[in-house]
Amino acid sequence: MLPEFEYIVPSNLLQACDFLRDHGSQAKIIAGGTDLVPNLRRGEVKPRYLLDISSLKELRQIEEASNKIRIGAACTHTQIAESLLLRSRGGILSEASSGVASRQIRNLGTVGGNIANASPAADTLPALMALNAQVEIVSKNHKRTLPLPEVVKGPYQTHLGPEELISCVIIDKIPEKAWYRFFRITRRKAMATARINGAVVLWRKNREGPIEEIRISVGSVTPIPCRMIAAENLLQGVVPSEGLIEQACSIVGQAMVASSGIRKSTDYKQPVVQTLVKRAIQDALRG
Amino acid sequence: MDKRSLMFKVNGIERILTVAPNRTLLQVLREDLKLTGTKLGCGIGECGACTVLMDGEPVNACLVMAVKAEGREILTIEGIGTRDDLHPLQEGFIEHGAVHCGFCTPGMIMAAKALLDRSPHPTIPEIKDALVGNLCRCTGYHQIIEAIQAVGKE
Q1: Letter string b/e over residues A68-107, b meaning 16 or more CB atoms within 10 A of that residue's CB
Q2: A281 and A260 in one domain?
Q3: What is the pTM of this model?
Q4: Does residue A1 lie in a domain region?
Q5: Would residue A197 count as lying in a domain?
């Protein structure tokens, strides 16, 4: 049995913001419910209201905006995995979304929910970070846009105020010729939370040429999924050699330890995260 | 907690119910409509025993609040065949010995139906992928996969 609450279905975004202004501190926003409903069942949250934003048309579109793509917060993982626009110009996100849990969950769970839930192991977050995602946050009479890393405060915590909701996420449109790999290690092959996940996106003018742009992000092994800027800088603009890739990957390992500290699992995770990033870069370079 | 009216279609029949907002689609199907083919397993979207189709796509009915089904079309195991006229997947599961204790079967069949609806002749990896969210503790899955593949070949 779930605890008692009122269920509010706004008919547009304005109504949703009005409701949150008046009752935000007593409300939980529900989209797919794949994280919230289990939390309600376990009694971890006891909101007076659930505000269902899943059917707001404004939040369900995926659209091009010059060199960006706007993805409505209530777009499901299935929608993202199957969007032709995203597959060609933001493929790393489609790949991450297509691996989330099961078809049943992907049909319910949303990208906005994945951000708001802020699990360290969320699959879409490393992919979104590799696409320089900006998160549009709205409230009554106010709108702000933050880079994704500034939205997530820590594991399962965000900087969203009680009167705010995520309306959309805006990503870079990456060149069609870009290569990308999403990787994840789990305890078993299916329906498992990632122990290590991450994304590599890169492109270059021609196969033998220097890397024009590379983006590396990892999740699950850090409190918040994050970009590996120092490692990226090493490879940016150069013709990558084995040694240089090796060096970039050891920076990734060191950055992981710097951010998570030494743990029992470090002996395993440090070499594995390095190897996963290395393989992803090599795969991407081979095309 | 104000009850709400819920109008939706279940197995082709228009239904109008009054439901408390904290009830799940699964509870309403099983308790109000007595459609007990859909099972409650884990209650957190891991096991897939509660899989139903909502507008043709599989979802975990234990995670869907009933009021969210407003205006939607729900298909449960009771809606795809009858005792005398089984759905090809139901026949296939029987023929291939894919039903042991039977608890996961309705969810398996609904997930498989959704797969065949979007991809009528699936490969084995596609079948396995479509069943990622459905646990079976008896069969070891082989008979289930064989049954679905056989129906896909027809």
Answers
A1: bbbbbbbbbbbbbbebeebeebbbbbbbbbbbbbbbbbbb
A2: yes
A3: 0.96
A4: no
A5: yes
Q: Domain span at residue A164?
A: 57-172
Per-residue pLDDT reduced to its tens digit, A228-244: 999 999 999 999 999 99
CB-CB under 8 Å, B130 with A191: no
pLDDT given for residue A191 in this prediction: 87
Separation CA B120–CA B98 (nearest Å): 20
User: What structural domains does chain B harbor?
Assistant: 4-79 (3.10.20.30), 88-153 (1.10.150.120)
Interface of A with B (CB under 8 A): 1-7, 9, 30, 32-34, 37-38, 41, 50, 52, 54, 78, 101-105, 107-108, 190-191
Q: Is the CB of residue B62 less than 8 Å away from at least one CB of chain A?
A: yes
B132 touches chain A (CB under 8 A): yes
- Using an 8 Å CB-CB cutoff, list chain A residues near B129: 103
Amino acid sitting at position B24? T
